[in-house]
Amino acid sequence: MRIGIAADHGGFELKQKIAAALKAAGYQVEDFGAFVEEEHDDYPDFVLPMARAVADGNVERGIAVCGSGVGASVVANKVPGVRAGLIADGFSAHQGVEDDDMNVICLGGRVIAFNLAWEFVQTFLAAKFTGYERHKRRLDKVAAAEREVGVHAHDS
Q: 139: Cβ–Cβ under 8 A, 6 or more apart, which residues?
């Protein structure tokens, strides 16, 4: 599985550790940066290219890390086709994939230790979308909302 990973300064250290663990576990990792810890960098500069790669199918799943995980989640979800979730528990790490076809996990580099983050990442990557009718119906509504927003964005 090919995994995209991105972080700003707030998630840099955790991203580095997760990327190394992914490679050791045999995953192909595409690192979208940051490549150096720069206190004044901006999470959209790294998370948006990674999220676009997920939406385009260039990577199968994504991992976004910032200080709290909130900003990474906000910006990742601006990309149509991305279903990102800020994860702070094991249940949501798999349920988000199984029910909501989550394709980007967001983590807070300043609020979660590596061991727990790695557990959530492994759970996320092992999970599969169930494809149940009710879940597909809900995702169709999400996709329709994305299209509607795109149409209305061009009205102004």
A: 83, 100, 101
